[in-house]
């Protein structure tokens, strides 16, 4: 076995490559053909309502779950057959609960670091020195504390520290801020920004919160109904959204609503046809957030198919 | 540093550190030693109770058996309990996310279990040797016997503990497993000579490691005359080695398969689901 040096590895090769990924539990199709890629250094958010298959997708990429079908490459390797060397280049941030409660923070990070030492390469010194790591996640003051004594926010930062102790080329974060108060959430977002700035670390995170995806990610991939229904930067997605507008008006006291891609043309025709009768005219462009929220609500009401279809219509 | 051996080294350090955390935790030490201390007090009361005009008291006869039982119990239940608990709390998943982490984790469990079993054994040995007439290490031979019985006993029971632990989905099931194991111990000649039991019960007892470990420690620590109350009036060292060896081989064949199966199924959502269940049953 020889170490793959990330510098000499093809920088244009996608870090994550997913084509027609399918997952079926019994007779239930959870993923029905997922496609996306992540480039080196990119922060990618996998966004979708609860139950959309985000966790399933990320666990397949982490090599923790076997897929039913499809082509998946993570750092050029099929995660179903990823060896220890491949594992050493990944970081997985797990949600701790009460594991290693007796351990002291520094001892735990030093222990996990030992496993990465033989995977050091000329370009990447592994593991991350514990003092630097503690400082990066803001746990220097807690270094001597037992893990069980940490606050919820501190524990999550320790989870991140464990995830990055091997200086991964690719980091997975599954719903990293669930259960956070706004303060802890902001601190966590700062931490992710620092991580993506520091090295060329590629980050894949899942979230059901569009706001979080917009804040953290270079690119958002929206997963719903078992497939990717939108893919692009937050800006690009909202620009695409804004082509859709909602026109409201009334005629003889009766109220009307119409969604259209060509608001100007529609209003011109409306006046041409009804002239003076048109009243209470209102033209509103839907924001990305509104369109997304509508989709999520309908998805959660069990109308997944129509929700996804309409969303795709809106973002086309 | 070498990629093959790093996980073993990390696991050794892990086991040592976990052992240190264990002995410095008053609650855990009490939990681990309390049953042995109770048994010790009972045996001290039985110091003067004789069995059928034998050369040693019932208390003296039982002390070595208890030490043997502790080896089996420590090997089996410690590993089983640790695996069941640490699978639920996500320790295992963390190990899985690290290169060589599973190997290191298992080595750590083995080291911790071996050390804590030896510690319990020593805690029992000191009063056994000092307070009971007729109990002693029978020279170099007895010491060597005790050492090999301890080693083979751990090798026979730890893989089985790992195999059973990887089948159990919740630490709350460990208590359920205690029932049949307690039953087995009751018929394994630990508290009373097995020869006093019906033949078919003796047959069952001789399938499992508890009886053989008790026999092994008795042979190392009791006067030779006590062989009279054993099956076939013999310490049966070869048979002991054969049966325990059989368990060891079976365990080592079974454990890797079951451990791999268990590890394969670990994922963040599996741990989250278990946490959810544990929280609910804690609230109820």
From TrEMBL, chain A:
<keyword id="KW-0813">Transport</keyword>
<dbReference type="InterPro" id="IPR003593">
    <property type="entry name" value="AAA+_ATPase"/>
</dbReference>
<dbReference type="GO" id="GO:0005886">
    <property type="term" value="C:plasma membrane"/>
</dbReference>
<dbReference type="Pfam" id="PF00005">
    <property type="entry name" value="ABC_tran"/>
</dbReference>
<dbReference type="GO" id="GO:0016887">
    <property type="term" value="F:ATP hydrolysis activity"/>
</dbReference>
<dbReference type="InterPro" id="IPR017871">
    <property type="entry name" value="ABC_transporter-like_CS"/>
</dbReference>
<keyword id="KW-0547">Nucleotide-binding</keyword>
<dbReference type="InterPro" id="IPR003439">
    <property type="entry name" value="ABC_transporter-like_ATP-bd"/>
</dbReference>
<keyword id="KW-0046">Antibiotic resistance</keyword>
<keyword id="KW-0067">ATP-binding</keyword>
<dbReference type="InterPro" id="IPR027417">
    <property type="entry name" value="P-loop_NTPase"/>
</dbReference>
<dbReference type="InterPro" id="IPR050763">
    <property type="entry name" value="ABC_transporter_ATP-binding"/>
</dbReference>
<comment type="similarity">
    <text>Belongs to the ABC transporter superfamily.</text>
</comment>
<dbReference type="GO" id="GO:0005524">
    <property type="term" value="F:ATP binding"/>
</dbReference>
<dbReference type="GO" id="GO:0046677">
    <property type="term" value="P:response to antibiotic"/>
</dbReference>
<feature type="domain" description="ABC transporter">
    <location>
        <begin position="16"/>
        <end position="250"/>
    </location>
</feature>
<protein>
    <submittedName>
        <fullName>ABC-2 type transport system ATP-binding protein</fullName>
    </submittedName>
</protein>
Automatic annotation (TrEMBL), chain B:
<feature type="transmembrane region" description="Helical">
    <location>
        <begin position="241"/>
        <end position="259"/>
    </location>
</feature>
<dbReference type="GO" id="GO:0016020">
    <property type="term" value="C:membrane"/>
</dbReference>
<feature type="transmembrane region" description="Helical">
    <location>
        <begin position="105"/>
        <end position="126"/>
    </location>
</feature>
<keyword id="KW-0472">Membrane</keyword>
<feature type="transmembrane region" description="Helical">
    <location>
        <begin position="21"/>
        <end position="46"/>
    </location>
</feature>
<dbReference type="InterPro" id="IPR013525">
    <property type="entry name" value="ABC2_TM"/>
</dbReference>
<feature type="transmembrane region" description="Helical">
    <location>
        <begin position="66"/>
        <end position="84"/>
    </location>
</feature>
<dbReference type="InterPro" id="IPR051784">
    <property type="entry name" value="Nod_factor_ABC_transporter"/>
</dbReference>
<dbReference type="InterPro" id="IPR047817">
    <property type="entry name" value="ABC2_TM_bact-type"/>
</dbReference>
<feature type="transmembrane region" description="Helical">
    <location>
        <begin position="173"/>
        <end position="192"/>
    </location>
</feature>
<keyword id="KW-1133">Transmembrane helix</keyword>
<keyword id="KW-0812">Transmembrane</keyword>
<protein>
    <submittedName>
        <fullName>ABC-2 type transport system permease protein</fullName>
    </submittedName>
</protein>
<dbReference type="GO" id="GO:0140359">
    <property type="term" value="F:ABC-type transporter activity"/>
</dbReference>
<feature type="domain" description="ABC transmembrane type-2">
    <location>
        <begin position="27"/>
        <end position="262"/>
    </location>
</feature>
<feature type="transmembrane region" description="Helical">
    <location>
        <begin position="146"/>
        <end position="166"/>
    </location>
</feature>
<dbReference type="Pfam" id="PF12698">
    <property type="entry name" value="ABC2_membrane_3"/>
</dbReference>
């Amino acid at each position: 076995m020889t170490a793959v040096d990330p510098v000499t590895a093809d920088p244009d090769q996608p870090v994550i490559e997913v084509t027609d990924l399918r997952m079926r539990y019994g007779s239930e199709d959870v993923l029905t053909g997922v496609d996306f890629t992540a480039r080196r250094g990119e922060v990618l958010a996998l966004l979708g309502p609860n139950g959309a298959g985000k966790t399933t997708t990320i666990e397949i990429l982490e090599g923790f779950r076997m897929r039913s079908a499809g082509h998946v490459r993570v750092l050029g390797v099929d995660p179903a057959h990823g060896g220890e060397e491949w594992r050493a280049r990944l970081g997985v941030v797990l949600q701790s609960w009460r594991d290693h409660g007796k351990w002291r923070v520094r001892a735990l990070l030093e222990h996990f670091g030992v496993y990465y030492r033989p995977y050091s390469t000329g370009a990447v010194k592994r593991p991350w020195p514990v003092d630097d790591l503690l400082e990066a996640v803001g746990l220097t003051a807690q270094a001597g504390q037992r893990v069980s004594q940490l606050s919820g926010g501190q524990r999550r930062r320790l989870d991140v520290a464990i995830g990055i102790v091997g200086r991964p080329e690719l980091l997975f974060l599954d719903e990293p801020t669930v259960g956070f108060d706004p303060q802890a959430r902001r601190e966590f977002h700062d931490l992710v920004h620092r991580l993506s700035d520091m090295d060329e670390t590629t980050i894949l995170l899942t979230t059901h919160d569009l706001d979080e995806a917009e804040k953290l990610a270079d690119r958002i991939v929206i997963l719903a109904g078992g497939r990717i229904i939108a893919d692009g930067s937050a800006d690009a997605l909202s620009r695409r959204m804004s082509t859709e507008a909602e026109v409201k008006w009334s005629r003889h006291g009766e109220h009307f609503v119409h969604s259209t891609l060509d608001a100007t043309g529609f209003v011109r025709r409306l006046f041409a046809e009804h002239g003076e009768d048109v009243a209470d005219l209102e033209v509103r462009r839907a924001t990305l957030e509104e369109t997304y929220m509508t989709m999520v609500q309908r998805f959660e009401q069990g109308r997944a198919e129509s929700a996804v279809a309409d969303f795709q219509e809106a973002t086309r | 540093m070498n990629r093959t051996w790093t996980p073993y080294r990390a696991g050794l350090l892990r086991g040592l550190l976990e052992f240190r955390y264990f002995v410095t935790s008053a609650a855990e030490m009490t939990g681990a030693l309390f049953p042995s201390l109770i048994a010790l007090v009972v045996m001290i009361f039985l110091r003067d109770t004789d069995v059928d005009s034998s050369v040693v008291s019932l208390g003296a006869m039982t002390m070595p058996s208890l030490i043997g039982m502790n080896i089996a119990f420590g090997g089996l239940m410690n590993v089983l309990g640790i695996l069941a608990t640490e699978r639920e709390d996500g320790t295992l998943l963390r190990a899985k996310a690290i290169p060589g982490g599973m190997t290191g984790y298992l080595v750590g469990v083995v080291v911790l279990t071996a050390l804590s079993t030896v510690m319990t054994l020593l805690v029992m040995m000191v009063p056994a040797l000092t307070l009971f007439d007729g109990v002693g290490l029978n020279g170099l031979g007895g010491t060597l016997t005790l050492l090999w019985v301890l080693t083979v006993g751990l090798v026979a029971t730890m893989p089985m503990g790992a195999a059973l632990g990887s089948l159990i989905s919740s630490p709350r099931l460990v208590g359920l497993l205690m029932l049949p194991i307690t039953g087995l111990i009751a018929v394994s000649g630990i508290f009373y000579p097995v020869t006093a039991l019906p033949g078919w019960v003796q047959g069952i007892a001789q399938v499992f490691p508890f009886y053989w470990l008790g026999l092994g420690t008795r042979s190392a620590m009791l006067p030779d005359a006590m062989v009279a109350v054993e099956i076939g009036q013999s310490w049966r060292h070869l048979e002991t080695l054969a049966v325990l060896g059989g368990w060891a081989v079976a365990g080592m064949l079974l454990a890797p398969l079951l451990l791999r199966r268990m590890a394969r199924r670990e994922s963040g959502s599996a741990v989250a689901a278990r946490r959810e269940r544990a929280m609910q049953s804690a609230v109820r």
